Amino acid sequence: MAGRFTPRTPTPHQPAAGARVPGRKRTWAARSGPLDLALTLGPLRRGPGDPTYRTTPDGAVWRTSRTPAGPATLRVTAAGDTAHAEAWGAGAEWMLEQLPAMLGELDDPEAFEPRHRLLAETHRNRPGLRLTRTGLVLESLIPSVLEQKVTATEAYRAWRLLVRGFGEPAPGAPEGMYVMPDARQWALIPSWEWHRAGVDSKRSDTVMRAVRVARRMEEAAAMDPKDAEARLRLIPGIGPWTAAETLQRAIGAADLVTVGDLHLPGIIGHALAGNRNADDDEMLALLEPYAGQRHRAARLILLSGRVPPRRAPRFQPNNIAVL
């Protein structure tokens, strides 16, 4: 009979105060102007309390990742166009090699040509905006699946519980930070633990299907956006919304628009045409002048704060953990 599978027991992973073990370091200067860590890396954060992402009062951003070389923690600060990074764990070298891409070096903000005053002003006021490219698919795919058809609060809670329960303490990181589970560990999470985290069987089954072909999923990081999207969508349960949310982060897909979103068409319709009732088709038509840069245009609209006033009641989450 199979034994009961339980979450990993947290183990001490942080040296005593003042005794932090030095990590590998790298200093890197961007060629494309000033760095803004919050704008560039912010999309990688999955809500408050994300155990894989933290900011500290000194301006540092801390991230944990499950890299091809193993678990890793990255701490990065920026001053002007220069980033100072330190990394710990088996994947530290990989994280430091990936640093320029993660901070937007492969992005081309100069390719964006504003066609609306709102976008021109926001683009000018956000000179540090770059599209990140983590080079890792599963770490963006799994939380994106958890965010399907539920409130952000529900999805963020599920991510926190599952990473803390089945991941591992992050090397060199502040207490409370974790590296997400590896593919095998995700596959071993029993159904009742998904239920306790508030994740229904449709979403958990999608994660299970993805992690069973984890290597094939990670290969998408080296593909062009069209092929990468096709690769992800081979998995039942991964549609255009999830693929876009994943690849915007994993490969910095500047043109991949999040279709199928409850709020985004209305926000873009309101900002560009005064139509808060826009659907996906109208959103795509409004973004057509930005072909090649449609995701960046959508990001700038969201950053502009030009959103329609709320008139419908907030969607009430269903807590399946208590059903």
From TrEMBL:
GO terms for cellular component: cytoplasm; protein-DNA complex. Residues 1-25, 41-67 are annotated as: Disordered. The keyword Nucleus does not apply. InterPro entries: Alkylbase_DNA_Glycosylase/TA (IPR051912), DNA_glycosylase (IPR011257). Keywords: DNA damage, DNA repair, Glycosidase, Hydrolase. GO terms for biological process: base-excision repair, AP site formation; DNA alkylation repair. One of its GO terms (molecular function) is alkylated DNA binding. Its EC number is 3.2.2.21. It comes from the Bacteria. This is DNA-3-methyladenine glycosylase. It comes from Streptomyces hundungensis. The lineage of its organism: Bacteria, Bacillati, Actinomycetota, Actinomycetes, Kitasatosporales.
